[in-house]
Amino acid sequence: MKKIWVLDPKIKWKTFKELQRKLVKESGPVPKEADRMYWELLRENKIYCWFASDMPNDMGIGLKIPKKYKKYKVYIIKSV
What we know:
alpha+beta; 4-stranded mixed sheet; 2 helices; 26% helix; 22% strand
């Protein structure tokens, strides 16, 4: 079964940063403050952030979750 992990908008900065550090590998030049900007937009419910089994070492970002993920098993990642 394919899986998608969607980040909860209430996720704490520390948890978001740790997920980025462990799951997202360097894919090229990225502005230093990009992670903080993504987290702030997520907190304001302006974007969605997700990890999917078909996207190893990468985080998806968008205004909505793509339709291709409708058949995937969905998990919500919350702060602990």
